[in-house]
Amino acid sequence: EVQLVESGGTLVHPGESLRLSCAASGFTVSSFTITWLREAPDKGLEWVALMTTGGDIHYADFVKDRFSASRDNARNTVYLQMNDLKPEDTARYYCAKGPVRGQGTQVTVSS
């Protein structure tokens, strides 16, 4: 069974950093494209980053130069490093393999 479990979300102040984790089971993360998504009540679901099996990573324009995705094959886990967080980054963050995503982790950026 494919499972994705996100963690690491919390309340931070603007300008701070946070690293989200996505632990996968039931498949090997290096063999599939993994996507990071986020959902805020007023914005709907947004694509944040995409990591291909070849290691190419693509980012949405609104997170370029601030967010960085990575993968640890030994831990079967993907990460999203988020720097210089802004209030507009407040959302529930998900990782996904195709249409399957985890329960998400809440990131709140507020002073």
Brief rundown of the structure:
By secondary structure, the protein is an all-beta fold. It has no helices and eleven strands. Strands 2, 4, 5, 6, 9, 10 and 11 form a seven-stranded mixed β-sheet that branches. Strands 1-3-8-7 form a four-stranded antiparallel β-sheet, with no helix packed on it.
Structure description:
The protein has 111 residues and is mainly beta. The protein has strands spanning 3-7, 11-12, 18-25, 34-40, 44-51, 57-59, 67-72, 77-82, 91-97, 100-101, 105-109. The protein has no helices and 11 strands. The strands form 2 sheets. Strands 2, 4, 5, 6, 9, 10 and 11 form a 7-stranded mixed β-sheet that branches. A hairpin with a 4-residue loop joins β7 and β8 (77-82). It starts with a strand and ends with a strand.
Oligomer: single chain
The low-confidence runs, each spanning 5 or more residues with pLDDT under 50, are: none
What share of residues is helical?
under 10%
| Cα radius of gyration in angstroms | 13 Å
Distance between the termini: 40 Å
Order of H and E elements: EEEEEEEEEEE
Beta strand %: over 45%
Number of strands: 11
Overall shape: globular
Largest sheet: 7 strands, mixed
Count of helical stretches = 0
Structural class: mainly beta
The residue-averaged pLDDT reads 96
